Amino acid sequence: MGCLVYVFLGTCKDNTIGSTAVASLLTYQFAKGVWQRAVLLTFLTGIIEIGMSIFRLGFLVDFVSGPVSAGFTSAVALIISTSQVKNILGVKSEGASFLQRWISMINDIHNIQINDAILGISCVAVLIALRFVGRMKVGPKETTELKWYHKASNKVFWFMGIMRNATVVVVCAGVSMYLESQGKHYFRLTGNVPQGLPKPALPPFSIEAQPGNATAGIPEVKGETFFDMVGGLGYGLIIVPMIALLENVSVCKAFAKGNPIDATQELFAIGVANVANSIFQGYRGNSGLARSAVNNASGVRTPLANLYISIVVMLALVYLTKYFYYIPLTVLGAIIISAVIFQLQYHVIKPMWRSKRSDLIPGIVAFITCLVMPLEVGILIAIGVNLLFILYHSARPKISLETIETMEGYKFLKLTPDRCLIFPSVEFVRNLVLKSGNKTSLPVVIDCTYIYGADFTAAKVISSMIDDFKRRNQKLIFFNLKPSVVQIFEGLKCKLILCYNAESLIEELKDSDVPAQRVEFEVPPSLKIDMGNSDNQSTASTITLTKYQSK
């Protein structure tokens, strides 16, 4: 249903909406394996995404930086791979975190299923090999020089690459079906999958209590009200839409080719798509990078390609589910592992190290916390650390300091902040301006070219700073201060000296300038003057001082 909705509301021709590794993991963790919660999560997050698009909150994805996204994606890749190792080896995997699952599997390693392990590892190797085959190219690099047999060979290689999952599933299911018909049960199978299309209905807003059956192995189901279900979903109602938006925008950017991206429209499209999913008992659907890459390589021109995907899925549900029974679980695990393992973002470490090493910190924090803690807690901590970096940089603006002499011979001290004045940074700027002003009697000019905003706290501090300069008869001039910021400062009746061009600045400097005065006074003969060297001290009877005074 997500694909059908995206045909009409989507903006990216290559994008496809469906199950993804990240969406599946988040849905499982927040719904805790209960299908009613999963469907309700899909419905509520879809409604939230629609609301976010109405209020144009697509910009929130900008607060998740590239390093945090890379760390989160890498952690998810390892978590999902770990969750499938149990299907490859046939061992138990329990626990809520990455480490707990590995400890559980190691403790149960003596129950390894040899047949499943051999088949699973072999499938992983074949899938990775076919992935590289799909990227093989023969013939000259220039496309104009390719012969017909070069193009045909490249097309065959490409087709083998994108068909690798289906090829492995069909072959292994066929072998398994034959073995089962011979009464040989070598592998653990997927089992029965209900046939037919689900009927449209409202999402479950409560869970009815059902008694268990110990003989049949059916666990007891506890009843839950709507508020119990929402409370159990917790942070998921915020985290899932944010990650979905991040995935969607990432896919759109990857294939935009310079075209603008409407994040708000994409948010609306994915929200409506998931509401439609929930009406047919489906769970979260996000943008899939691998599927979209196949779309792009196939030469699609509009989002109508999603229609064909949707039709194929519906036909499979109607006609092929009886054959899904024979798919070995280890094959499905191999497919997932071979797909998500390439989502490890190790390739960003080297360029990040070269450009700005401090960006590695939020990325590493995201990676570690998502591995050792529940995923929702890890991503929140990583975003929090990233915001602390942003706040620190806004609280510590860079200020260039230089003494300038005009052609007319007037000197002044120029300070240039590189960003706006807001409450975290204004006290830092004030201390630096006062410290610089105390070291000289020259007029101080603050170049406000890059100060595009301010707040009430900044206005109070600026008013105090003006009074400090006035008490010591030192002029403080604001150069090129934007009218919107002037209005904020004048709200506290700050008496600003404003200049917007070189002529007005020189006039202000001229008013504050007087010729240097030569002052002589007597000092005791015993006074020692430190000349900068302990061996070079001498007495003096007079000291000549030159002082640059203001009026």
Largest sheet: 5 strands, mixed
- Domain count: the total is 2
Please report which band the strand proportion falls in: under 5%, 5-15%, 15-25%, 25-35%, 35-45% or over 45%. 5-15%
Widest sheet, order of strands: 3-4-5-6-7
Q: Which structural class do the helices and strands define?
A: alpha/beta
Helix count, per DSSP? 22
Q: How many strands appear in the DSSP assignment?
A: 11
The unreliable regions are 514-518, 531-551
Helix content: 40-55%
Output mean pLDDT.
83
Report the C-alpha radius of gyration, rounded.
34 Å
Descriptive tags:
551 residues; alpha/beta; 2 domains; elongated; Transcription Regulator spoIIAA; 22 helices; two-stranded antiparallel sheet; single chain; 11 strands
What would your notes on this structure say?
The protein is of the alpha/beta class. It has 2 domains: 1-209 and 224-389, no CATH class; 397-511, STAS domain (Transcription Regulator spoIIAA, 2-Layer Sandwich). Helices cover 55% and strands 8% of the residues. The chain has 22 helices and 11 strands. It has helices at residues 2-9, 21-31, 35-54, 66-89, 98-107, 114-133, 148-162, 164-181, 226-233, 236-254, 263-279, 289-298, 305-319, 321-324, 329-340, 349-355, 360-372, 375-395, 423-438, 456-471, 483-490, 502-512; strands at residues 17-18, 286-287, 399-405, 411-417, 444-447, 476-479, 498-499, 517-522, 528-530, 537-539, 542-547. A 5-stranded mixed beta sheet has the order 3-4-5-6-7, with helices on both faces. Strands 1-2 form a two-stranded antiparallel sheet. Helix 20 links the parallel strand 5 and strand 6 (476-479). Helix 4 (66-89) runs parallel beside helix 17 and helix 19 runs parallel beside helix 20. It is elongated. The relative contact order is 0.14. Residues 514-518 and 531-551 have low confidence and may be disordered. Residues 421-490 form the STAS domain. Keywords: Membrane, Transmembrane, Transmembrane helix. It is a multi-pass membrane protein. It comes from Stomoxys calcitrans (Stable fly). It is found in: Membrane.
